[in-house]
Amino acid sequence: MYDAFAGGHSISAVGGDFFVSVRFRSGVSAARQGGNTVKCYPSLQEAARLAATYNVVPIVRERMADTETPIRVFRRMAERRHAFLLESADGGARWGRYSFLGADPFLVVRGKAGRFELIYRDRTETVRGRPIELLSSLMEKYRAPVLPDLPPFAGGAIGYFAYDLLRYYERLPAHRVDDLDMDDLYLMFCDEVVVFDHLRHRLLFIANMRIRPGDTEADIARSYREACERTERLAASVAGAAELSGENGPPFGSEAFADDGDIGDVRSNMDRSRYEEMVIRAREYIRAGDIFQVVLSQRFETRPKASPFQIYRALRALNPSPYMYYLKMDRETIVGSSPEMLVRVEDGIVRTRPIAGTRPRGRTPEEDEALERDLLSDEKERAEHVMLVDLGRNDLGRVCEFGSVKCDSYMRIERYSHVMHIVSDVSGRLRKDKSAIDAFVSCLPAGTVSGAPKLRAMEIIAELEREARGPYAGAIGYWAFTGALNTCITIRTIVFKGGAAYVQAGAGIVWDSVPENEYRETVNKAKAMLRAVRIADRLFVESAPGSRFSGLMETPARKSAPNEDYFFLEMTQAGGDE
């Protein structure tokens, strides 16, 4: 079982390699606060020992969570200016072991075009330079231990990296239009985190204790006590997360998620003929020998009535995936359910998981097996997958020890709620002179959303696509104070900005691609996200008691007339997810 954001820990792993034993009793410390006993771990003695080597030590308080859910608890955080929720579902069938929640970062790093803001709680600094060097200099200030009783993320940076980040390091052209004006990166540095452990039904409230040069034993004891008190306040801030009026919408069954073809008013940034012209032009580049493959995308826009958090709730029910995320930022919110890892670094091992080749799930086990055989025997799908595995091996080879890069599994089928994919696992041992962020840059953007060779494919994308991609085809994830990093490819994602919801989807173009089919593929890939928007509108807004939309649950949205800038889509029924 694979639990993406939990770094491989799955709730089904009770006794295998994924089981993490708990040895808390001897390490529990009691700190007095207002007459109440707050139990924290590790103990003060253990924290002092760790402080001799590290300058950040996570202090944890836990409580039972068998009556709580991440959604219920996170609603206490979702209205704050900055907040995040990371979840995982293994193959769309089981929820991952951990969910990570947080808000109110002590530092936000954002910017574009070489100008970055460092937004602290009490001040803002502006710096110029390149993003990875900036992030590396910031993360070098925080060194935390890997503790066996804690999840892989207990504090660090969470956020997104845009597709165009590689332009800081390679001579690549820019897109002609940047109408969304999104940052090149947006990271929230959090030293307080709430973690759901779904296996042990417990909530972990984590506050990272800071150690400064020259701290005495008394200083460390005071920092430890303050960290324990912070865990107490963190627990109190989400305690009694009662149901909020109207948040659950009306009672509903599985019919609420049935695919009736209604996705509301949707418009694209290009018409069909322009997309098909891009495909024809890309095929000319392929026949000329410039590239083997290129991924061309279009962006869809709709105007939701539901809130981004309500839409996330619909999406996680409609399309559970290994990487699910809700990122609330200053001006934008991003929600998504990506199936595909970009890169993960843990314990000195770098991993990537190319996914290429898709079929819908069958209606019966026999049909499912027949579709699997069809997928694995499709020469075009196999050739594309082999090419992307080779690209992943090359990406890791730039940062891993010579001879350590290998395929741990090759061309196996992985099933999700709506589709099945061909998946391979590639890993290598990180070189001593390289960091997790070096491994990240070596893989960004993924070949599955750019093409091969990667740099030439990106040049062609910039030429043929009109608007900048922004977060689409970039990465979302975390970089922990321990040095661990876990990121996914930003696909199956909705960006909310200025009252609009944007969904972008692409298709891999090869020498024999049929323009009409590739256009249809991009529409079908976007459909799950757009359905989630429409479902949330229906459940949480149109059918809410007293709403002027009440009673419209079964009424398809009226299609508006096209204008000169966009056309409104009639979504097809065929096809699957990205």
From TrEMBL:
Its EC number is 4.1.3.27. Keywords: Amino-acid biosynthesis, Aromatic amino acid biosynthesis, Lyase, Magnesium, Metal-binding, Tryptophan biosynthesis. Its cofactor is Mg(2+). It catalyses: chorismate + L-glutamine = anthranilate + pyruvate + L-glutamate + H(+). InterPro entries: ADC_synthase, Anth_synth_I-like, Anth_synth_I_N, Anth_synth_I_PabB, Chorismate_C. One of its GO terms (biological process) is L-tryptophan biosynthetic process. Pfam families: Anth_synt_I_N, Chorismate_bind. Pathway: Amino-acid biosynthesis; L-tryptophan biosynthesis; L-tryptophan from chorismate: step 1/5. GO terms for molecular function: anthranilate synthase activity; metal ion binding. Residues 272-525 form the Chorismate-utilising enzyme C-terminal domain. It comes from the Bacteria. Residues 66-204 form the Anthranilate synthase component I N-terminal domain. Part of a heterotetrameric complex that catalyzes the two-step biosynthesis of anthranilate, an intermediate in the biosynthesis of L-tryptophan. In the first step, the glutamine-binding beta subunit (TrpG) of anthranilate synthase (AS) provides the glutamine amidotransferase activity which generates ammonia as a substrate that, along with chorismate, is used in the second step, catalyzed by the large alpha subunit of AS (TrpE) to produce anthranilate. In the absence of TrpG, TrpE can synthesize anthranilate directly from chorismate and high concentrations of ammonia. Heterotetramer consisting of two non-identical subunits: a beta subunit (TrpG) and a large alpha subunit (TrpE). Belongs to the anthranilate synthase component I family. This is Anthranilate synthase component 1. The lineage of its organism: Bacteria, Bacillati, Bacillota, Bacilli, Bacillales.
